[in-house]
């Protein structure tokens, strides 16, 4: 199982999924973290000042971020827009909005089955 965690510094979880500088990608096997890598967020312009995804007649597309995280089973953040929350779930990627601040803390809680999803903490934009 691969878990993607939005993080600007590889240690704390980013407050906003789409504006994160990157993602810690943890490979979990048999309940243990086997490896971690960091993917720079160069697949969405949300992380740039004033940036947003490509806009079309139906709003902006999340296709680039969905494609970049397609190998993940789960993504964690401390906040995200409702559309990306739903789009991730539609792509069969579980999305979790956590109140936990640390990457390792949230990763352990998810693996242990104790991490609570807080979809009400998402933002509407």
Note down, in words, how this protein is organized.
The chain is of the alpha/beta class. It has a single domain, classed as Dinitrogenase iron-molybdenum cofactor biosynthesis domain (Nucleotidyltransferase, domain 5). 20% of the residues lie in helices and 27% in strands. It is built from 3 helices and 7 strands; from the N terminus they run E-E-E-E-E-H-E-H-E-H. The strands form 2 sheets. A 5-stranded mixed β-sheet has the order 3-2-1-6-7. Strands 4-5 form a two-stranded antiparallel ribbon. A hairpin with a 2-residue loop joins strand 2 and strand 3. It is globular, with a radius of gyration of 14 Å.
What's the arrangement of secondary structure elements?
Elements: E1 2-6, E2 22-29, E3 32-40, E4 55-56, E5 59-60, H1 63-68, E6 74-77, H2 82-90, E7 94-97, H3 103-112
Parallel strand pairs: 1-6, 6-7
Antiparallel strand pairs: 1-2, 2-3, 4-5
Rg for CA atoms: 14 Å
Q: What spatial order of strands do you see in the largest sheet?
A: 3-2-1-6-7
What would CATH call the homologous superfamily?
A: Dinitrogenase iron-molybdenum cofactor biosynthesis domain
State the low-pLDDT regions, or none: 47-59
Count of helical regions: 3
Order of helices and strands: EEEEEHEHEH
Query: Which architecture name does CATH use?
Result: 2-Layer Sandwich
Distance between the termini: 30 Å
**Total E-strand runs:** 7
Q: In which range does the helix fraction lie? A: 10-25%
Largest sheet, if any? 5 strands, mixed
**Structural domains: how many:** 1
Structural class: alpha/beta
